[in-house]
From TrEMBL:
The keyword Transcription does not apply. CDD domains: proteasome_protease_HslV. It catalyses: Cleavage of peptide bonds with very broad specificity. Pathway: Protein degradation; proteasomal Pup-dependent pathway. This is Proteasome subunit beta. GO terms for molecular function: threonine-type endopeptidase activity. Signal peptide: none annotated. The formation of the proteasomal ATPase ARC-20S proteasome complex, likely via the docking of the C-termini of ARC into the intersubunit pockets in the alpha-rings, may trigger opening of the gate for substrate entry. Interconversion between the open-gate and close-gate conformations leads to a dynamic regulation of the 20S proteasome proteolysis activity.
């Protein structure tokens, strides 16, 4: 490499070949910038921080649907009513987050950069399993913070473009705080309302469900979670705040508009007035 300008003005680390991982690059050059590096796992007195709550995901005949409610809580208080907990991470994947909101959003942004960086460096897109493994490594890197009570638990969903049959291409991955990665079948939920959301999905889910119907099932599951879990919000018809929904299929990851989700949420609420049990 020439030592003349402009190469001379660029730090050597930026010109050193390495793996196509943005996280590994930051760990090598600026490790203090990684979310988990600010915590050493020793117990500490922490103030109440906003926490995100319930995320659900369902496999469909067209791929997969992932949805999350909009409430963040701080102890017994509602910290935010319209927080975003579900994010499109690249063309064929999305992630929902439960846990400490600030750290979770930071990890999601790092993950989005990780996928974009790999594609630019390697000129190919990571496989779906590869994306899930990269996210597992990032969750593992946050273990020190998790041991101090700042856990981040994502739910990752994606469409495997290597599989020709759309009904088999939708995948759902869950994680524990140590970075353990688990492939889920049919549906899954994370967060404080996940027990109630999964109970609702257990009754209503059926294999081969269409995307529109899966979105309704996701909204109903969040409605049932909100009915029993104070940290989960149901559809807010007064403020027009509805769950964030992303559907992933052959056309890629598409976030549903608030109007489209709102129409289904209004229908769910109207039906529950007639049949409270669903």
């Amino acid at each position: 490499m020439s030592g003349s300008w402009p190469a001379q003005a660029i730090p050597a680390a930026y010109l050193t070949p390495g793996a196509g991982s943005f996280t590994e690059f930051v760990a090598r050059t600026e490790p203090q910038l990684l979310p988990g590096s600010r915590f050493d796992g020793r117990p500490a007195a922490l103030p109440d921080l906003p926490h995100g709550t319930t995320i659900v995901a369902l496999a469909t005949r067209d791929g997969v649907v992932i949805a999350g409610d909009r409430r963040a809580t701080m102890g017994s208080m509602i910290a935010q009513r319209d927080i975003e907990k579900v994010f499109v991470t690249d063309l064929y994947s999305a992630v929902g987050i439960a846990g400490t909101a600030g750290l979770a959003v930071e990890i999601v942004r790092m993950f989005q950069l990780e996928l974009e960086h790999y594609e630019k460096i390697e000129s190919v897109r990571l496989s779906l399993d590869g994306k899930a493994n990269r996210l597992a490594a990032m969750v593992r890197g946050n273990l020190g913070a998790a041991l101090q009570g700042l856990a981040v638990v994502p739910l990752f969903a994606g469409y495997d473009t290597d599989i020709a049959d759309p009904s088999r291409a939708g995948r759902i991955y869950s994680y524990d705080v140590t970075g353990g990665r688990y492939c889920e079948h049919d549906f899954h939920a994370v967060g404080s309302g996940s027990v109630f959301a999964k109970s609702a999905l257990k009754k209503r889910f059926r294999p081969g469900v269409a995307t529109d119907e899966a979105v309704r099932l996701a909204v109903e599951a969040l409605y049932d979670a909100a009915d029993d879990d104070s940290a989960t919000a149901g559809p807010d018809l007064t403020r027009r705040i509805f769950p964030v929904v992303v559907a992933i299929g052959t056309d890629g990851a598409i976030r549903w508009t608030d109007d489209a989700v709102g129409a289904i949420a209004e229908q769910v609420v109207a039906d529950r007035l007639l049949r409270p049990g669903g």
